Amino acid sequence: MQNFVEPDYLPALPELFLAGASVTLLMVGVFIGDRSTRLMTWLACISMAVAFVMVLALPDERTTTFFGLFVVDRFAAFMKCLVLVGAAVTLIVGIGYVKREGMNRFEFPVLIVFATLGMLLMISANDLIALYVGLELQSLSLYIVAAFRRDSLRSTEAGLKYFVLGAISSGLLLYGCSMVYGFTGVTGFEGIAEALATTVPGNVAAETGVLIGLVFIAAALAFKVSAVPFHMWTPDVYEGAPTPVTAFFAAAPKVAAMALLLRVFVGPFHELADQWDQIVIFVSVASMGLGAFAAIGQKNIKRLMAYSSIGHVGYALVGLSAGTPEGIRGVLVYMLIYMVMTLGGFACILAMRQRGQMVEEISDLSGLSKTNPPLALALAIFMFSMAGIPPLAGFFGKLYVFLAAVDEGLYGLAIFGVLASVVGAYYYIRIVKVMYFDQPTDGFDRPVGVELSAVLAGTGIITLLFFAYPAPILAGAEAAAAALMP
Predict the structure, then answer these.
(1) Can you list the residues of the chain whose pLDDT is less than 70?
(2) Distance between CA atoms of 347 and 91, rounded to whole angstroms?
(3) Which residues, 6+ apart, have CB-to-CB distance to 320 below 8 Å?
(4) Strands (DSSP E) along 48-147, which ranges?
(5) Measured over all CA atoms, what is the biggest interatomic distance in the chain, rounded to whole angstroms?
(6) Whole-angstrom distance, CA of residue 333 vs CA of residue 398
(7) In terms of C-beta density within 10 A (0-12 exposed, 13-18 middle, 19 or more buried), how is residue 293 classed?
(8) Which secondary structure element, helix H or strand E, spans residue 143, and what is its range?
(9) What is the pLDDT of residues 368-398, one digit of tens each?
(10) Is the previous residue joined to 229 through a cis bond, with omega within 30 degrees of 0?
(11) Count of CB atoms within 10 A of residue 486's CB?
(12) How far, CA to CA in Å, does 291 sit from each of 41, 104, 227, 280, 296?
């Protein structure tokens, strides 16, 4: 009988801390009750801040632990920082909403912490089993928060639809993982990469089986990032879920799922780049096209943001299709900028209240520049940035991924991306037109709240002034991309 070797717990310290914090918060909530929701929210944010510091404090070199199931490197650190910031900010902006809309229950921040823990495990997964466990921990928490407003038919429908389709994607993922395991004999990422480089080539059956497994895995991960053709859940869930939950869906889980997509494709399946590159290019083109055209006719701003997020995933995948360190760096920068713009945009949506009631129609923004100039300015900044208007941050996000595609000779993909961006600019600029040129309707309730104001100011400044000092973000993304590439 082999002696048990104690794993090194230090690389997983942020995850272990969050796991302990989530269980502790759950017990505190049970004993104090729903009146502790605001306290629990701030404790959850503090827990994420502590985990953030722990991630930054870990050594930079690549480290694996738990018998190769868990990996920590600069790529993981970069994406974990984004996820933790996105999760904490969505909790903060939702404080007022949760209290007003009958969601004042202590389980809400606890579920967000559990989902965040799942995302961190996804980002550091170095094995198909670890990947699945992290993904399910995140997904099960998200199913519940999507339907958290039990008295709302739309919220219940959103949660049920997300659960059913999410269960299908989990089945696809498991089947794909089983195919890969069956034809390589291993589940660890390094073992899969070694098998694809040595034993699988020349074996037609094994090559075909692994490729089929990869297609199923790609389909499941495309569902998680809401990429076409696995996007069908996104508009309905975004519209039906409570607005802070929608903001959370659009920010942190999307970043984590994109990190997982990058790690899986660039890591164990790097040898099959010629095959999966075709899938990525198709999904990218389809997502950019649908995001550009399907949002034009939307009247609900949350549905518009859903189609917008589909389009942004398409733009980010342009960088992955290049398959180079520059392309991966472009994806990382794009996801950071996308998260900032999205959090700011949903903070503006959370400020859309008339006589204490939330409104979501684009027509409700009519004349906002006259009734609430600061809010109109903030939303205009985010809309112009999402449209890719220079010198705002969104322009540079698209620039980096398109340049990476051009450097690899993917001229058609880059040109299609630019054209889709031009079409998509219509519905972003239409919102600005409604705010600045239409006749005012009833103004929104004021004040919007300290938390919302702080988030709007912070995200607006980053979006507006990104061009002034992008060096730290570019350097961090470059180091993260170098750590990911084999």
Answers:
(1) 1-4, 34
(2) 11
(3) 261, 262, 265, 266, 280, 284, 327, 328, 331
(4) 63-65, 70-72
(5) 79
(6) 9
(7) middle
(8) helix 128-146
(9) 888 888 889 999 999 999 998 988 999 999 9
(10) yes
(11) 10
(12) 33, 34, 10, 16, 9
Continuous H helices in 198-300: 204-224, 234-240, 243-250, 252-266, 273-294
CA nearest 40: which of 49, 29, 51? 29
pTM exceeds 0.90: yes
- pLDDT tens-digit series, residues 250-274: 888 999 999 999 999 988 888 888 8
DSSP state of 354: E
Burial of 409 (0-12, 13-18, 19+ CB in 10 A): exposed
Q: Which two tokens stand for residue 184?
A: 């390589």
AA identity, residue 423: V
Distance separating alpha carbons of residues 238 and 215, to the nearest angstrom: 27
**Residues facing 127 on adjacent strands:** 188
Q: pLDDT averaged over the chain?
A: 88
Residue written as token pair 């609430």: 372
Cα(30)–Cα(36) distance, integer angstroms: 10
